[in-house]
Amino acid sequence: MKVSIFIGxxxxxxxxxxxxxxxxxxxxxxxxxxxxxxTKARVGKLILPHGLVDTPVFMPVGTQGTLKxxxxxxLEELGCQIMLNNTYHLGLRPGQELLEQIGGSHNFQxxxxxxxxxxxxxxxxxxxxxxxxxxxxxxxxxxxxxESTMLLTPEHSMSLQNSxxxxxxxxxxxxxxxxxxxxxxxxxxxxSIRWLDRCINAHQKSDSQNxxxxxxxxxxxxxxxxxxxxxxLRDTPGYAIGGLSGGEEKDIFWRVVTLCTDLLPKNKxxxxxxIGYTEDLVVCSALGVDMYDCVFPTRTARFGNALTPKGSLxxxxxxxxxxxxxxxxDCDCVACKSYTRSYIHLQATKETxxxxxxxxxxxxxxxxxxxxxxxxxxxxxxPLFVKQTFKDLFGNExxxxxxxxxxxxxxxxxxxx
Length: 417
Prior knowledge:
Structural class: alpha/beta
Radius of gyration: 21 Å
């Protein structure tokens, strides 16, 4: 069957059916085991080559093979089922040749559970001053020596990710800041579609690695709709919502998220990239998202901030110097079972062990939050869980974010009732 797919102002003719059969085999199984009767929230069992992932899931970010501050072994002991590695950074150091020699990133970091790799697309925003973007790909100047360059094309991104060996790999997409407007957003969206086709062609390990498409289009609803329409035709094992969490108005952010979850296939996992705040994880789960990642819990730990259900504690503050409580009373992480706020305060202001302990706690907090979200959905009490979470986190209803009130109201949860 010859199919013509319209992409931007070009028609690409190819044997779509045989193309997809050959290139888009799936190395995952996905089963939805519970749905919220009020919202779009759902609980799933995602089986990947390195084991089970319960969704909704938060995936900690181990950019260069580990989370900053803790080891992969410690992450495993916290019950983490999947974490991220970064293709661009691993491609620079230790480099593709070494990863090939050792048999991939699982072996390199001694991690037996699942991995997801970022394609390198986000670095087009985070390292924009070092990047030159063309239809061919993006050329980066090394942030390490400011001299050597890497040309990251869709083909090279796939080659790197095949060498890394992650269970889920992301297409190379043309990423622009969520604050960008005008023709550049449309250009990036259509280029992302074309680059997905090149990624599919170049992907060599579809029997063991799952390639996810990324929905782009900025804050433009029509561009997002068009991108979803095109990406669905490629029938990838899962889909990501990209190009958000870049400083855009949150009342627009959630509308883009819910549009995408409405339009994307219900039988595929949906991943919203760059999400890590408590209220964002709860709201986006209500909107139908299954997977998240963010550097927030580890990055904020390096500034002495510990996450709790009642908000963040800056343990560098002198007010904690004589506080002999654990960071969080009911937390069973090593930091909370073994040390007081007073001890961690002393270490956080002078020693790296303070950052280590707070990082352990913050990751434990995020993973426990997701377990609690899943359990509330399974027991069909998710709306009550959401209301209690916001009450604990913000206290007074007057402090509830307006965007979150609006977002949750769209899926039948009235935070103010």
